[in-house]
């Protein structure tokens, strides 16, 4: 790291100021205490790939204080005006003194060079570039950076491919590479299959997934946009929700085929309930509005633990892990639903995200999403969400077991998801905190999770 140290020292003041303003930076609201270089690689002259460990000052509950981030920095003497929104700054000293440093992915020329690098398998310093042998990646596709509010950053190439660059990275294969690859091998076509990816191979740790290139579903719209569109004209969404439930169940079936499954018995159900309870406690510490509901919400987790004590077991398998309407894309041409973004909840440690879970975790995520859409689309108080949720479960039940037949499990997962959302909104979109809080209110009142009644 000796050569990276002076480079990072010269960039540190700029990055310390710039990082907390990025949507994908997990440690918002906390001053950065220091940056440590992990690796620096010149991808091409004027494009620097950096892995940096960020030390943040306070102890936020759901992520480690020493997160490692991936940065792609463009370096030029003078930044052309069209790139000025991407400016990070001009180092005052060190090897980059007087040069202009900017967000590299925003520069189509540099983004194009990155695609070129991905087309050819091989190594560059600690970086390894890989490709599915039968994937044909055309050259010279015009890139554009997605402007979406994202946990990571993505560039679309000629409406043909999308490259997702993971921002907060760590040792081990990211499930957003692992699961889509495993699904592709089963022949499941509900998830775009990775065509190429790159990793960092650093001494003494597992390879870190840094980016994945996959087919871009051109002309698709995500479920969140579609649901809000339907709500804006007071249209029913049950046909779409039913088809989505069917698609999710197909993906679950393929995941269970492709990757190990397990059975949760008493200790494991108790451990799952304990983990949910911990998350509730930690979130209540961080978000005072949650505190009055603590004991009522714990009932749902106690009920989950009681299943194990009654001698019951539940199946667990790899799941999506952060399923919501925004992770489902429907193509206009054939109305087919696909699922994306298998990374799991960004705040959870990788080991936890890769652990088999009851499929109820994903189902609860999607059910919560209908509730969100109804709240944001001003349909709270109507039966829009309830009907959509019921239709989703019906569609799911055409392939897999009906999730409504296990109301205790579903309620625990929906409660856990709503608690996660409380922390997510408090941290990222405080104006939206009331959305999960109204679900918390409902769930704490003892209503069943789906709003559709168990048989
Ligand atoms: N294969 C794809 N085809 C079309 N659009 C996609 C595809 N993958 C992702 N997107 C778009 O990019 C956005 C961000 O992708 P996602 O994987 O959810 O990233 P993040 O983890 O940063 O949220 C999605 O909301 C979707 O609009
Ligand atoms: O960025 P990711 O897609 O990984 O997911 C995070 O951000 C989501 C918001 O963009 C957040 O989802 C929550 O808000 C959605 C509406 O914007 C709603 O449909 C979801 O049901 C709700 O959970 C997600 O939780 C978070 O991990």
UniProtKB/TrEMBL annotation:
Start and end residues of each Maltokinase N-terminal cap domain: 18-107
Gene3D superfamilies tied to this protein: 3.90.1200.10
Pathway: Glycan biosynthesis; glycogen biosynthesis
Keyword Kinase set for record: yes
Pfam families: Mak_N_cap
EC number(s) on file: 2.7.1.175
Signal sequence annotation: none
Coiled-coil parts of chain: none
Catalytic activity: D-maltose + ATP = alpha-maltose 1-phosphate + ADP + H(+)
Keyword set includes Secreted: no
Domain of life: Bacteria
Keywords: ATP-binding, Carbohydrate metabolism, Glycogen biosynthesis, Glycogen metabolism, Kinase, Nucleotide-binding, Transferase
Assigned protein family: Belongs to the aminoglycoside phosphotransferase family.
Subunit structure: Monomer.
UniProt protein name: Maltokinase
Species per Swiss-Prot/TrEMBL record: Streptomyces ehimensis
């Amino acid at each position: 790291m000796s050569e990276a140290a002076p480079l990072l020292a010269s960039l540190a003041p700029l990055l310390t100021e710039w990082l907390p303003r990025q949507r994908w930076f997990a440690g918002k609201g906390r001053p950065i205490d220091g940056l440590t270089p992990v690796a620096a690689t010149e991808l091409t002259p004027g494009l620097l790939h950096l892995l940096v460990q960020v030390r943040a000052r306070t102890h936020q509950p759901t992520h480690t204080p020493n997160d490692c981030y991936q940065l792609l920095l463009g370096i030029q003497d003078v930044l052309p005006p069209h790139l000025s929104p991407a400016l990070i700054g001009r180092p005052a000293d060190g090897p980059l003194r007087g040069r202009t440093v900017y967000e590299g992915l925003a520069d189509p020329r540099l983004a194009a060079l990155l695609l070129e690098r991905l087309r050819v398998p091989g190594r560059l310093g600690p970086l390894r570039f890989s490709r599915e042998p039968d994937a044909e990646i055309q050259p010279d596709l015009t890139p554009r950076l997605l402007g979406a509010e994202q946990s990571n950053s993505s560039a679309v190439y000629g409406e043909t491919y999308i490259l997702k660059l993971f921002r907060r990275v760590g040792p081990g294969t990211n499930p957003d590479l692992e699961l889509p690859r495993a699904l592709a091998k089963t022949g499941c076509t509900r998830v775009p299959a990775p065509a190429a990816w790159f990793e960092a191979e650093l001494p003494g740790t597992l390879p870190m997934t840094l980016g994945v290139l996959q087919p871009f579903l051109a002309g698709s719209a995500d479920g969140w946009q579609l649901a809000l569109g339907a709500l804006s004209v007071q249209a029913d969404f049950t046909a779409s929700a039913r088809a989505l439930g069917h698609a999710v169940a197909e993906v679950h079936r393929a995941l269970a085929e492709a990757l190990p499954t397990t059975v949760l018995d008493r200790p494991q159900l108790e451990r799952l309930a304990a983990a949910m309870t911990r998350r509730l406690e930690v979130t209540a510490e961080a978000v005072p509005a949650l505190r009055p509901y603590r004991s009522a919400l714990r009932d749902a987790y106690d009920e989950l633990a009681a299943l194990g004590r009654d001698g019951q077991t539940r199946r667990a398998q790899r799941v999506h892990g952060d399923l919501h309407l925004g992770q489902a894309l429907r193509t206009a041409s054939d109305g087919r639903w696909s699922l994306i973004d298998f990374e799991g909840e960004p705040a959870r440690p990788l080991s936890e995200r890769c652990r088999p879970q009851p499929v109820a975790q994903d189902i609860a995520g999607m059910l919560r999403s209908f509730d969100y859409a109804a709240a944001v689309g001003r349909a709270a108080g109507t039966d829009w969400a309830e009907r959509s949720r019921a239709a989703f479960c019906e569609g799911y039940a055409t392939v897999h077991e009906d999730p409504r037949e296990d109301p205790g499990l579903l309620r625990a997962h929906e409660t856990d998801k709503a608690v996660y959302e409380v922390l997510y909104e408090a941290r990222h979109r405080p104006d939206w905190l009331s959305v999960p809080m109204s679900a918390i209110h409902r769930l704490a009142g003892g209503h069943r999770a789906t709003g559709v009644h168990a048989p």
